[in-house]
Amino acid sequence: MIKWQGKCKLVLAFVAAAAMLGTAWAANEVSYENDGTIDIAVISKDVVYKPNAEGTIRVNISGDLGTNDAPNTNNFKIYGAKDSAGGSSNFTVNWGVSKLYTSGGFTQIIAGGAGSNLKDSSMTFNSAETSEIYEKNGSAQKSLLLAAGPEGGTVSGDTTLTINGKLGSAYEVSYLKATAGGLLNEDSTSDSIVVEGDSTVNFKADWKTGDSTALLAGPMIQKDGKASGIVKGAAVVTVDGGGAVREMWAAGALLNKGTPSLTVGSAGVQILKGTVDDTVFAGAEIWTKGTATILGDTSIAFSGGTMGENDGRARLYAGHDVEVESGKGYINGDSHIKITGGKGIRYVFGGGLAWRGTTSETQSVVRGGSNIDIVGDSGLSALTENSMIFAGGRRGTNSSAIASVEGGGNVTFKNITKAYKGTISGQGTQSTSANGDYVADYTNSVSGDSVLVFDNVQADFSGATIVEMDRIELSSGTELKLADLGGATAIKLTGNWTNFGTPSALTLTKAVEQDVTVDYSEATGIVSAAFNEAKTELVVTCKNAPIAVTPTALKLQLGKSDTVKATTPVVGETVSWKSSDTAVAAVDDAGKVTAHKAGIAVISATGSVTKTTAGCTVTVEDPAAPDPVPTPAPVTPTVITEKDNPVTKDKDVPADVKPATPVIKPATEENTKALAASADVPVKFFTATADGNIT
Predict the structure, then answer these.
(1) What confidence category does residue 442 fall into, taking pLDDT thresholds of 50, 70 and 90?
(2) What distance, in Å, lies between the first and last C-alpha atoms of the chain?
C-alpha cells in the first residue's frame, strides 16, 4: 500500500507542489516504497507519487478508479525517480489487474522524475490480462501518458520504454500516449529535455486499442512557449507484440501552443508483428507553429504485422505530420520505406503530410531524396490490391502548404513474380477522387527525378497505373509487362546481363508514342537493347557463353547406353540433341546415347539462345570383332628449313634439307647414292633399316 507521510510533511509537500507547478493544478505529494503498491482506488484528489529511494524502482498498481459510467476526473502522476536524481532511473510498473476509467483529468507515469539529470532512464510497463486503462471522452493529447524519460532535464545516455502484457479486456485502450524520450507538461519546471543517446520504444504487448493510442520514441513537448526537446541519437519504435496501437510518430511530438522545437538525430519505425490501426509517421507530430528537425535519415521497415483498415487510412509516411498552420517539419537526410512482409498497407508516402495549410508557411519537407522498396512477393502481398504508392508527400486539398521531397524519388520493386494492380506515382497527392481515394495530382512534390526501378522482376504489372515518372530502370533478370511507361522518357538498364539470352526486358500493352532513350552504358554483358518495330517490346541481346557437353569422348559396347550432359549458363536456354550417324549411335532428348553398331558417331547439342553447338565423339566397339589394323597416314614430303632442322650445325649438313624422292627404297648402293643426291645429303648419313629399306 501507499506509504503515507506525516500530516506535517504532507501539508508542506502540498504547498511546495502548488508553488512548483503554478496555477495549472495543485497536487499533494506522496512518497512510496520501492517494490511497494499504489492503490489507485483511494485516489480522490490530485496527487503526485514519488519513490523514497533512487536507482532501480518497482511499483505495483492495484485497485480500480472510476467506472465507465462515472469516470475519474482527477489528475495524478507517478514518478519513477526523485527530482534531480542524478543517477540512472530503472523503473518497472506492474499494472496488476487494475481498471482505470478517466475523463477530463490526466494520468501520467514518468520514469525519470521532474527536472532530472540522469545517466540513463528506462521504464518497463507490465499489464495483466484483465487490466483496463480507458479514457471515455478523450480529447486532450495528454490524457493518459507513459514516459520513459524525465519530465524535463538531461539524460546523458539512452531512454528506453518497454511495454509488455495484455491491456483492454472489455474496453479499448484509448488516448494513451507512450513516449521513450520524456515529456514537458504545461506545468513542468524545465523548458527543455535533452537525450544525449538514443530513445527507443519496444512494444511487445497485446493491447486492444481504440482512438489515439500512440507510440512515440522522441520527446513529447506539450508546454507553451519556446520549449525544446532534443534526441542526439536515434529515435526508434519497434512493434513486436500481438496487440494493436492506433498510430505512431517515431521522432516525437510538438503539441499545445507557442513555437516549441524538436531536434532528433535520426528516426525510424520497425514493425515485426501486431497491428497498427491507422497511420505510421517516421517523423514527428506537429500541432503547433513550432519546428521539428531530423538531422539525418528517417526509415520505416515493415516486415510483418497488419495495417488495420480504419476507414481506408492504413498509411505509411516517411516524413513529418504537420497539422497546424505555419507548423514546420524538416528531414535533412533521406527518407526510406522498406516493405518485406505483413499485410493491409493501403497508402505509402516517401514524404510527409502538410495539412490545413493555406499558405506555404506550413511545411513538411524531406531535404534529401525518398526511397520506397517493395521486396519479394511477401513484400508485394503486404500491399492491398488497390494500394497507392507516392514518392512524394501529401498536402491538403486546394492548399499552398508544402509536402515536398527536394531530392529524387525512387520506387523500387525487387525479386517479384506476382502481378500488381495498384497506383505508383513519382510525385504526391493533394486531393481525392469521387470515391474518396487519393489523386496523383501534386506534381511538384518531388523536385528531382522520379525513378521507377524493377530489379529482377518477372511479373505482370500491366494492371498498375503509373504516373509522373521521369525514368524507368530495369536491372538484370527483369522481364516485365506494363500498360505504358507512365510518362517516362528514359529507360536505363543496369546490372550484369551476361548469359541472360535475348529477353524481352519490357513488354507494353500499347505502343510507346513518345521519344524514349534506352541507356545501357552502365550495364555489363549487353550487345544491344532496342524496341521492336511495333514499339511494344524492349529486346535485350546479351553476351552469352557457348554451350558445353561432357564428356567430350565416350566408348560404348554394342547395345549399351550412357548419358552425355549439356551445360549452359544462359538463362532460359534449352538444348536439342543430334547424332551424326544414327546407325552407329542414337541420342534422345535427354542426352541418352545408345550404341547400335561398331563405328564412330558425333553426338552434338545445340543451344536455343546462343545457337552454339558442342559435341561428344562416341566410339562403338563390337567385342566379337578383331581390332582393325591401322593404316599409316600418308606422309607428304617437304623441306626441313635451317630453323626447324635440329642437326643443321653438324658438319657437311646443309641448311635446308630437301625431301628424298622416293621416301622409301631398298637400301642398295645405287638407291642410296640416288636418294642422297636428291636430298642433297652426304651418303654417310644414310643407313639400312631392319627391313632392308633406306633411312
Answers:
(1) very high
(2) 123
Compute the residue count for the chain. 695
Contact 158, 233 (CB under 8 A): yes
For residue 468, give the amino acid letter.
E
With beta carbons less than 8 A apart as the criterion, state whether 247 and 286 touch.
Answer: no
Nearest-angstrom CA–CA distance, 411 and 481: 17
Say if residues 238 and 274 touch (Cβ distance below 8 Å). Answer: no
Counts for the chain of helices (H) and strands (E), in that order:
3, 62
Cα distance between residue 479 and residue 458, in whole Å: 5
The three cell numbers locating residue 420:
500488381
State yes or no: pLDDT of 371 exceeds 60: yes
CA atoms within 13 A of residue 671's CA, in its CB half-sphere: 15
How do beta strands 526-531 and 228-249 pair? unpaired
Strand 599-607 and strand 613-621: the pairing is antiparallel
Burial of 376 (C-beta count, 10 Å sphere; 0-12/13-18/19+): middle
Q: How far apart are CA 11 and CA 2, in angstroms?
A: 17
Cα 321 from Cα 212, distance rounded (Å): 14
Residue that the C-alpha cell 560404348 belongs to: 556
Q: Are 87 and 119 in contact (CB under 8 A)?
A: yes
Block residue for cell numbers 530489379:
455
Query: Is residue 492 within 8 Å of 510, Cβ to Cβ?
Result: no
Rounded distance, CA 119 to CA 54, Å? 13
pLDDT at 2 over 50: no
Phi-psi region of 180 (alpha: psi -120 to 50; beta: other; left: phi over 0): alpha
